[in-house]
Amino acid sequence: MATNPYIALILIPILVGLFNLVLPGLLKKILTFLGMALTGFLTLMLALDPDFFEWIFEVPYFGLDNLGTFALAGTQLLAFIILIFTLKGVDKRIEKSFFVLYPLTVGFCNGVILSDHMIAFMVFWGLSGVMLYLFNLLGRSKDAPESARKTFMLIGGSDACLILGFVMLGFAIPQPSWFITDINVDLTGSAAIVSFISLLIAALAKAGGFPLHTWVPSYAKEAPVESVALLPASLDKILGIFLLARIVTQLFQCPLLIHMVLISIGAVTVIAAVMMALVQHNGRELLGYHAVSQVGYMIIGVGSGSPIAFAGGLFHLINNAIYKSNLFLVLGSVEKQTGTNELDDLGGLGKNMPITLVMALIGAFSISGIPPFNGFFSKWLIYHGLLDMAREATAGYEIWLLACFILAIFGSALTLASFLKYLHTIFLGKRPKKYDKIREAPANQWLSTGLLSVLCVIFGLFALEIPLPKLILPILEENGMGSFDYGLYKSKLIFTMMGVGFVIGWIIYLLIRKVRLDDVYLGGMDALEKFRVTGTEFYQEIRRMKPLSTIYDWVEKKWLDLYALLGGASNTIARLFQKAHPGLLSLYLFYIVLGMLVLMFIRN
Q: What pTM does this model have?
């Protein structure tokens, strides 16, 4: 019998979830922790030695290549660290359901990554989408059911596209096969094109790419914050980009035009989502739009066809999952301490929650692409890849690539501006008096965000020693992309120079500081709380700029929301059918006769 230990990585978390249906609260947490630890250990052993375990049964539908190892390692690492955050602080009203869904979600995601058979892939893909819907239903606000419905419709619709894509793929290959690793077709012919478009829709919807992204901010606002950090911030991104990487490197041989289209989708995703993030007043919605914006960089990199940009896209995938989970969990800690995630209601919490502030700073610097944190180098690789492509492209493609490059750079600058708002409105400024007694988050919460922050630093400083050579370059070699030049980037030198500059600046400040703190007075009296400056209003100038104000108006009217547009179209069609068939028996018989005549005409 052939050895296949991969099934254990699926069964262990699924069995944990099923046992948690009957276990009491504390035992649920213990079993979930042990299950995630064991699954992580197995993943590590398999990454080091695929033949480490020997099993007495054969399961031919599962396998693991270098891309799968990368996705699997990221899934287990993030699921374990986020789990630490959940061990204390999950809403008691949803705790029972939460610790059933959590391990099941990890098991289904592992199933997607490990499935080599199309049917197994579709089953686990669909089940992971159901978990997304069920987590959304755990939200306690009145809008949570509508958010869950929106998520279910968009993700469920994309699941149908996934099925269609695999079915059409069977018509596009000479010898039909259900095994994904057996397929590699030219993107020619109607069957291959329909298959490519359908699978691309599934990947973009799962990852949250434009224009299938609108479920992400809604989910981020309404679902439990722990599930937001687990799914749209990390695991769903991994699955969506994992499928996109499979599409462009394995399933299809894509021409340059297709790569250009994917780069354009990524650039539009970056700029459109970050513009929406800038004007948000709700912290979760702000992070939700940034979760979408960062997907744009991954789509650019993975979809580009450039080896260096492809490496950057995959590196940005894991980097984003780390710092985005960190930022959501930081906001979750603040939310659990204050009872709100509305930015206008927060402020001045840095002195009360200094550890959480440090974690937020690291996450904000990382997502904004500030060196030497991890977000900078992955973006650097993507930019480098685009410029290399532009240098070798014809004039028309060169202009096209440079336009996308500029949008990506501009999106990074706007990300920094947005996170200055995030930091200021939560941790800086004047603190409302009702939060004077707020204390630091529990140890398990800052331990979780602390581990993620440490990874932001390690993956930034040691990118050339750990993640790139160990996880990402083997993927390129396996797909025949070869090696590339990293450029002149020296993370440790930059870190040293920035550190020296910071120390010198701090010394100068201590020597010449002249800071006077005054209270705000209006008419000679202390200013009321309602006159407190929160920082969110500064960004309203962007909202009022022409032509941006017109676009923002369209968004508020849901003219650019695919879910709202499809819902409106379906309602219109339903009303037409209601008018066409009001229930009269004579009209019903007429339609039957008319249909029979049409069929007879077609056959003749």
A: 0.90
